[in-house]
């Protein structure tokens, strides 16, 4: 039986390191497979948005993060993939862990990029989060 078409909630974290580089993951799965995205995933029952962002960052990058602030909320609509997500994105900083790719079945690569050297194939959520981060910079 096909699940009903309903919006889902997914939370992301734009992780920024001390060199002001942003962490991106190259997605293997929908939505937007083949594009670079921020870490993130669906909210679990009784989990807060910030808890989700921290958990997903660890699961997808091996890094422990601290949430700084909400950056933006994206209406992530990908009709050709049957995807509809409401996607808050938080700014996060690294506070521990070691960068790795703990979920190679989900991500082709996990790495930091300088803001002036971003890949062109960014997901909608990554583009929106990076733009919000850049608008908030002094």
UniProtKB/TrEMBL annotation:
Pfam families: NUDIX (PF00293)
InterPro entries (alphabetical): Nudix_hydrolase, NUDIX_hydrolase-like_dom_sf, NUDIX_hydrolase_CS, NUDIX_hydrolase_dom
Cofactor dependence: Mg(2+)
Hydrolase listed as a keyword: yes
Keyword list, A-Z: Hydrolase
Tree of life domain: Bacteria
Alphabetical list of PROSITE patterns matching this protein: NUDIX, NUDIX_BOX
Annotated ranges, domain Nudix hydrolase: 6-138
Protein family: Belongs to the Nudix hydrolase family.
PANTHER family on file: 8-OXO-DGTP DIPHOSPHATASE-RELATED (PTHR43046:SF2), GDP-MANNOSE MANNOSYL HYDROLASE (PTHR43046)
Protein name: NUDIX domain-containing protein
Species this protein is from: Deinococcus lacus
């Amino acid at each position: 039986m096909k699940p009903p078409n309903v919006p889902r909630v997914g939370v992301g974290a734009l992780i920024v390191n001390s060199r002001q580089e942003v962490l991106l993951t190259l997605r293997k799965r929908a939505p937007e497979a083949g594009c670079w995205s921020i870490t993130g995933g669906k909210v679990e029952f009784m989990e807060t948005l910030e808890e989700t962002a921290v958990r997903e960052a660890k699961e997808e990058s091996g890094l422990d993060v601290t949430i700084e602030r909400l950056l933006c909320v994206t209406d992530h609509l990908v009709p050709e993939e049957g995807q509809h997500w409401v996607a808050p994105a938080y700014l996060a900083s690294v506070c521990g862990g070691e960068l790795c790719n703990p979920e190679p079945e989900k991500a082709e690569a996990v790495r930091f990029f300088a803001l002036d050297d971003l890949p062109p194939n960014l997901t909608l959520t990554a583009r929106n989060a990076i733009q919000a981060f850049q608008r908030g910079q002094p």
